[in-house]
Design a protein that fits this description.
This protein is mainly α. The chain has three domains: about 210 residues, Multidrug efflux transporter AcrB transmembrane fold; about 90 residues, no CATH class; about 190 residues, no CATH class. The protein is built from 26 helices and three strands.
Length: about 625
């Protein structure tokens, strides 16, 4: 130890050069040889691995992917046969229709705008070259084309609730939902740019409760529906609900009615009732017993794909209370949850700069030295980046979860504490030598300081690092990675605290002892304003030192009985809360990334399982398992 004390006291520049060069090389290698961390999916790493439950969940997820629309398996073989037969029948029918069109000599006279016909009932009532039967058949076939098919979960969807506690299946509430959708979504520039375009429509109208009621009663839009239309649709939904629950009414009924025998024809018209029950209304809306018809939550699907392209649209709506006195939008699924988290993470990084600024002021006030303050902050930065080098290049760990960023906050606190300990012991050694009326040598000062401060820093660093490294046995990947990175930062911080920072303290002491600043820039020649500023700063630092050295210890030592009672009560209350209400495990399978009242997070936590369409995967699994077992 003495050899290091001699080198540090006599050659502080050498210690600075070696520690700074090693840190610089490590930082350069880590930033050039490896890719920077990717936080595009902040939920990565929070799945448990190697446990019995995690293995079962992995198998379950693989099975879900296998029976999806792009998977190699199908949940119901009979359904696949029916679908292929229906597609073959439709193909032959389309070929026959094309042949008839070629034979027709008056085709130009028979062309009409189907989209306008559907949107305007008066135009649909006009005489056209079509025969009545042909016109009716052609129009019915293209209404669904105007709707761009049936809704799917990959489209943006929003959730409505009543502001008055009423049912949403009323004329006022339905038109209110249409109004909110038109004002806050369809009126945005991003909506027209990203809107799905299929069939005869320039932009698909979307799938909403009011839109399907208008479709069933030949209205131009949901703003023109009548009270009788709403009531008749509600009665029809009650009539068809038992067929939906039994599985007889499904999404394939409109295209192939023969596959849904026993279902009343009005129930399969335009697939409207199935879509209303399956996609647009909540599961508590109707019951087989018919004892409730209150629609608490309604959903609307927009012709926009769920993706990060929805960020500008959400930004234009962020912070607004989307309500009009009758209904409000309480949740939405835009497919931007991870992107929003990354955006908020970068915005919250500003608070990290605020923390660094406060630490800078605290260290500067306590040490009265910009040199030591600079040394403390740079040592913390070097410790974090050197730990990142060991993590990525030496340990070759490729996964860097966003949870590792918390190590920055921990290292700031630990590094600042170590700096305070070093400076405190250094000042105490100076005072002790002066009290003994002895002029100490630099080696004696360094030896006394390191002998007392390094042991304290070593104990606190080892215990803290051991606590982090102990979490490496966790089954959660993100926690294991965090424990490794946080432990490495603490160790790197300790080595820099006994090399980099003491060297700067020694340089500062040498400069102040030699009074270099006073020779080059005499204080008496300074401007009066600068002189007064220095006096104010000197008084401020003196007050800070007095607070830490006299007032704070007195506040802790003298009323020690009060602190013992308060801390004892705190421990007792903690034990009470530990058993009542007790620790509660999460009751949702969704990882919460945002605040619970955020509309994007609220959808995952509260509304993901309130509608039937979100259970399609599970129903497919049950069908698949029953078929394979049979």
């Amino acid at each position: 130890m003495q050899w290091y004390v001699r080198i540090l006291a006599n050659q502080p520049y050498l210690i600075l050069l070696i520690s700074g060069a090693l840190s610089g090389i490590a930082i350069a290698l880590s930033l050039t040889l490896k890719d920077l961390p990717d936080f595009s999916n902040p939920q990565d790493g929070f799945e448990s691995r190697g446990t019995e439950i995690s293995d079962k969940l992995t198998t379950w997820t693989n099975l879900l992917d296998s029976i999806s629309h792009v998977g190699p398996l199908i949940s119901n073989p009979n359904l696949g046969i029916r679908v292929r037969a229906s597609q073959e029948k439709r193909r032959k029918k389309n070929e026959g229709r094309k042949k008839n069109k070629r034979k027709n000599r008056n085709r130009d006279k028979r062309e009409i705008d189907i989209y306008k016909m559907f949107r305007d009932p008066e135009l649909a009532a006009l005489k056209t070259p079509f025969h009545d039967r042909e016109k009716r058949s052609y129009l019915l076939q293209n209404k669904n084309a105007w709707l761009c098919g049936d809704p799917v979960g990959d489209y943006v969807h929003v959730v409505y609730e009543s502001t008055r506690g009423e049912s949403l299946f009323t004329l006022r509430s339905i038109q209110s939902m249409c109004r909110l959708e038109a004002l806050y979504f369809k009126n945005q520039k991003e909506f027209s740019e990203l809107c799905e375009t299929k069939g005869p429509a320039e932009c698909c109208p979307g799938w909403s409760l009011g839109g399907y009621i208008a479709l069933l009663h030949n209205r131009t839009s949901c703003f023109t529906i009548q009270e009788t239309d709403v009531k008749s649709t509600l009665d029809l939904a009650k009539q068809c609900f038992p067929h939906y629950v039994s599985g007889a009414l499904s999404g394939v009924c409109a295209g192939n009615y023969m596959a849904c025998q026993g279902v009343p024809p009005p129930c399969v018209e335009h697939n409207a009732i199935y879509t209303i029950l399956h996609f647009l209304t909540d599961r508590n809306f109707l019951s087989v017993k018919g004892d409730g018809t209150k629609l608490q939550y309604a959903m609307s699907f927009l012709p926009l794909a769920r993706s990060t392209a929805m960020m500008p649209l959400y930004t234009s709506l962020d912070g607004q209370d989307i309500a009009d006195g009758s209904t409000r939008i309480v949740a939405m699924d835009l497919g931007i949850k991870d992107s929003l988290f990354n955006k908020y993470l970068l915005e919250d990084a500003n608070f990290l700069f605020v923390a660094v600024a406060l630490i800078f002021i605290s260290v500067w006030s306590f040490t009265s030295s910009l040199t030591i303050t600079f040394a403390a902050l740079t040592s913390i930065l070097f410790a974090i980046l050197t730990a990142y080098f060991i993590y990525t290049c030496i340990f070759n760990l490729k996964f860097f979860p966003f949870m590792n960023i918390l190590a920055v906050i921990i290292t700031l606190g630990v590094g600042t504490d170590d700096t305070f300990i070093l400076c405190k012991v250094w000042n105490q050694s100076l005072r002790s030598f002066k009290m003994n009326e002895k002029t100490p040598s630099l080696e004696e000062l360094v030896s006394f300081t390191l002998q007392h401060a390094s042991f304290s820093m070593l104990v606190t660093s080892l215990t803290t690092a051991a606590a982090f490294f102990g979490s490496i046995v966790s089954s959660i990947t993100a926690i294991r990675c965090f424990s490794i990175f946080a432990g490495l930062t603490i160790i790197c911080n300790f080595f820099l605290m006994v090399t980099w920072v003491p060297a700067w303290i020694i340089l500062h002491y040498q400069i102040m002892s030699a009074q270099v600043l006073h020779r080059r820039l005499p204080v008496e020649r300074l401007d009066n304003f600068v002189t007064k500023t220095l006096e104010i700063y000197s008084k401020f630092t003196g007050c800070v030192s007095k607070f830490f050295e006299k007032i704070l210890p007195m506040m802790i030592v003298r009323p020690r009985l009060m602190w013992i009672i308060l801390l004892g009560l705190g421990v007792l209350i903690s034990f009470v809360f530990l058993f009542y209400p007790g620790l509660r495990l999460p009751n949702t399978d969704q990882l919460q990334l945002l605040k619970g009242n955020h509309p994007v997070e609220k959808y995952d936590l509260q509304f993901r399982k309130t509608h039937y369409f979100n259970f399609d995967y599970f129903l497919n699994i049950l069908n698949y398992c029953s078929v394979t077992e049979f």
